[in-house]
# Entry
Amino acid sequence: MVDPQDLAELLGNLAENAAKWATSRVAVTSAAAPDGVVLGVEDDGPGIADGDVAAALIRGGRLDESRPGTGLGLAIVSDLVEAYGGTLTLGRSAGLGGLQVSVRLPARHIA
# Structure
């Protein structure tokens, strides 16, 4: 089962990142999937270029230093998702135009 503190850390980092980069909108979603659960966070900010996704997930990696931050948020999310055997996907939000982050956690970790 996902530790509640780990889930709070995961969602907190994603929400904080989205709020920092959003122009005016952030959307948070969750959905049951046959093999677990899918959590999504998206915003209407500048997003991340496909070629920069790997760099954004490196601990301390910062693609843009125009706003405060440590470069740890997405790396922490990536570590937590990996620890629970899930998958993390970063891409362009079709609805809002900024970053869309999708986290899939396997059913064996959901109670």
The chain has one domain: 4-109. The longest helix spans residues 4-21.
